Amino acid sequence: MVIVLHFIGNIIWLVFGGIIGALLWTVAGLLVCLTIIGIPFGLQCFKIAGFVLWPFGRDVEIGSFGVGRLIGNILWILLLGWELCIAHLTIGFFLGLTIIGIPFAIQHFKLAMLAILPFGAKVLNRPGILKGPASR
Q1: Helix spans in the chain (H)
Q2: What are phi and psi of 12, to 5 degrees?
Q3: Which residue of 2, 4, 30, 92 is most buried, as measured by CB atoms within 10 A?
Q4: Do the Cβ atoms of 100 and 80 come closer than 8 Å?
Q5: For the chain, what are the domain ranges?
């Protein structure tokens, strides 16, 4: 039952902006990959584009990162991350004001977390995760 809800949520997400968001992240990744220095940042854009395309039933886990990923995250935050994080937090806040928008707000909060620290983050498939009586 939960997998069906995730599927329905993803279809609604795709229709109301998921495809456009994924295309924009993909184009940004391609543009950043034009320089050799930008390739790691482009790969993170592609990771985020995949998550934007199909976010329900998936989760973001911020992992441990070493010096290289720390430097990458600092550069990302200074150049791209903070604007994207604020945008996703703002959209999530306004979607959260309505009952229908709460699941979509949660997805934007996940995207905000991924937008601020993409290096070392993992996008995990979590099918069937639903806390409460419906999961029994």
Answers
A1: 2-13, 19-32, 39-53, 67-76, 82-96, 102-116
A2: -65, -40
A3: 92
A4: no
A5: 2-127
Stated pTM of the model: 0.72
Paired tokens of 36 = 């050799």
The phi-psi region of residue 93 (left if phi > 0; otherwise alpha if psi is between -120 and 50; otherwise beta) is: alpha
Total residue length of the chain = 136
Walk along the chain (136 residues) and give the pLDDT tens digit of each residue.
778 888 888 898 888 777 887 888 888 889 889 989 889 888 888 988 888 888 888 888 887 778 888 888 888 888 877 888 888 888 889 888 989 888 888 888 888 888 888 888 887 887 655 444 344 3
Q: What is the DSSP letter of 133?
A: G
d(CA 129, CA 61): 15
Q: Which two tokens stand for residue 127?
A: 């099918």
Write out the two tokens for 106: 């949660």
